[in-house]
Give the backbone structure.
Amino acid sequence: MATNNQNPSSSLRFLYRTTIGRIILKPLTCRPISKLGGTFFSSKMSTRMIKGFIEKNNIDMSQFENREFKSYNDFFTRKLRDGAREIDMSPDALISPCDSRLTAYKIDDRLRFYIKGRKYSLREFLGGDKIATEFSGGLCLVFRLCVDDYHRYCYFDSGKSLKRRYIKGKFHTVQPIALERYNYYHENAREYEVIKTENFGLAVQSEVGALMVGKIVNHNLPSFKRGDEKGYFEFGGSTIVVLLKSGKATLRDDIVKASQKFEETRVKFGEKIGQSERKFADEQQ
């Protein structure tokens, strides 16, 4: 999987590489302080950050609703204008639930997949849930969102919700320097939903938060259609994980080849990234 090659800022070097910095870091990562940071990003004062962020990240604002933003979080969770993304509604199409960088893994007992620079078994990621065994031989799709990505996400297929679980954690930075000495991923909050889909069977769709994201905001729909908004992330880098059972989907060749080299593939909200095994089998006949 590709790593983040950006050089850490001097403030991050101080926080993570010095004793005094780590003493300061401890209260900064506690929930009340994180909540305070989230409050700032939801305030009118934070709007002054928007223009510089757009320019620095070359964001094409013509893709989004044209309106005045009330806060940085309001900007960060902005909605696409109608028609800005085309959702592939073909029943056999497997779509990306978000704008992101995608890496795919085959699920087996040896799988240790990467999120925020660390590796985990599937059962660890699901907080010990035994349902992990049902996905042996299937696919683990890791969608890594960057700060310049669209931070709303959808359901990848129509279906209904069977179970939701929120795993409480401490919000923490996801920049690589934070991973040099500690496994901070285990402190990140995450939420996963077990869903029964129309075209891909039993699946899991999960969201992971980061420092001062403050919230993974899910709508908790009992049933849904492909492309329906599942939720959104507030400020911060984030990740979505989709689990599919064995024999349910075949991915695009470019995604498979890139993932075999631990490289990411840039994908967009609603874009076709694969197809059902049923469709694949029909095409081989």
